[in-house]
Amino acid sequence: MRLQALMFLLLSLLTTSVNSATRSDLDLAKEYQVKALFLYNFANFVEWPADAFADQSSQLKMCLYGAVPFGEFLDIVNGVMVRDRTLQVIRTTDYSQIQSGCHILFVGIDHHDQLDKFFKDLNHLFVLSIGNVEDFARKGGVVNILRTTDQQQFEINLTKAIENGLLISSDLLSLARIINDR
User: Fold this and answer.
1) What is the pTM for the complete model shown?
2) I want to staple 36 with a disulfide (CB 3.0 to 4.6 A). Which of 73, 122, 125, 146 is the partner?
3) What digits encode the pLDDT tens for the residues 57-104?
4) In angstroms, rounded to a whole number, what is the distance separating the alpha carbons of residues 117 and 106?
5) Can you give the pLDDT at residue 148?
6) 3-state class of 122 per DSSP?
7) DSSP secondary-structure letter at 54?
């Protein structure tokens, strides 16, 4: 029920903000909406161990690092409950803000050329890292959102997820292309 309400809210935002948009603008807005829904749904289908949080009342932090053109769609879910935790959406270009701890980390398009260094320098324990560039999951990320000719799909680096201490729902895994390498 909550997901249906979220989808309705996102669709409402989409239609009001693109009334006079061209067809390509509308397609791009829909693509951004789908990516935002993916991120929100990933939060609902991944479990973090208790050690990933300071205490029982700690928030689930979703960090959008760098250029994330669909960030405004995720602002809508800032403060909603995901299981027993409040989702906190953090949009930042400041590396120090993500170093202090994120549970979900989307790496923006402006940082894709630095992925090798990025994954080497950042502690990814308990972090669901998500990107949308070719080989993101093979370069150290956990989830990669891919654009095929007619839809968005995703792949999951299951080995990396396990190394990061994450438990991914079998429902989510059944929809993904699984990668089991480093």
Assistant:
1) 0.83
2) 73
3) 999 999 999 999 999 999 999 999 999 999 999 999 988 888 878 999
4) 16
5) 73
6) coil
7) S
Supply 134's token pair.
Answer: 């070719």
**How many whole angstroms separate alpha carbon 34 and alpha carbon 70?**
9
Residue whose C-alpha is closest to residue 31's, from 170, 159, 151: 151
H or E element at residue 15? helix 2-17
Running DSSP on this structure, what letter comes out for residue 21? -
Give CA–CA dist 146/51, Å, rounded: 31
Q: Residue 166: phi, psi to the nearest 5? A: -100, 145
Q: Per-domain residue ranges for the chain?
A: 2-176
Identify any residues that bridge with 87 across adjacent strands, giving them in sequence order: 60
* Helix, strand, coil in percent for the chain, rounding step 5: 40, 25, 35
In angstroms, the CA 109 to CA 119 distance is: 15
Q: Would you say 139 and 115 are in contact if contact means Cβ atoms under 8 Å apart?
A: yes
Tell me how far apart the 2 most distant CA atoms of the chain are, in Å.
48
